[in-house]
Amino acid sequence: MQHAAQKFSPLLAPFLARRSISDLHASVSFHMPCRFFSDRSRDDDSDSSLIRLSKLMSQKGICSRREADSYIQNGGVRVNGSIISELGAKVHPSSTIELSRDAKNHLNSKVTVLLNKPLNWVSSQPEDGHEPAIKLLSPANECKELNVHIPPRLDSKVAVYGPLSLPKMAVCGRLDVNSTGLLLFTQDGTLAKEILDPHGHIEKEYLVRVNLVLDESDRATQAKLHRLRDGIYIDNVLFSAKSVEIINVNQMRFVLTEGKHRQIRRMCEQVGLKVVALKRVRIGNIKLRSLPVGQWRYLQPFDKLQ
User: Which of 84, 108, 132 is the last residue of a domain?
Assistant: First the structure.
């Protein structure tokens, strides 16, 4: 049997030809009972809350809209027990949505990787002579001790070249060349969208070392903390942190739910502090933990974004 990743790459793969009744019954369900309509044929009394099936699947975090369209077109989606294969079909926001076994396997075959980015590596494209961090996703840099669970259905090419050989590995939340710590690469567009959504309120935690001694009993330090906690306007734009706290004499912990360019460094500059080291240790509930610098591991079952 072909692997699900092969059958949906490209998205409109020969999935329909291999579909069977047993495949469709062996499915994953998202329970929301209701009726459906298509764009071309709707009841006169249909209510205005109807939504495209692909959009609803995306909103519910089942898959991306593009993937949903592929699954729908290839007969891999049921609504209320009926196969929906017409693009543009609309449903109520509360409905029962089922994915076929092949569609579910395709979703589960996507790879997400955690990297502890070292200094002097850029997050994405090569820049000013610095190499992109994705080049570190090689077999030589795998932290095998932490790779307890290996994603299923990885082809032999990954064993030879590592995750850097996988297509469409997007970086989720960049770190600048002078920053270190947790960097995520994923093939999962839904996960990437959730992390990068400016209105998603996903927390990112950073350990920040500065050039001055921090003493919470000192009035000058207290004033700096108040400004950082209250938010700072820079060029008429508000830069804010969810929380800021002092850890020791020259280190702070920042928790952000937004991701403006060089945000922490620029906020610190406004209160007379210079950042000398910045390390991201958490995205949502996904933590860097004991992953060594320059090494990577696969996302594990205990790694939950929320």
Answer: 108
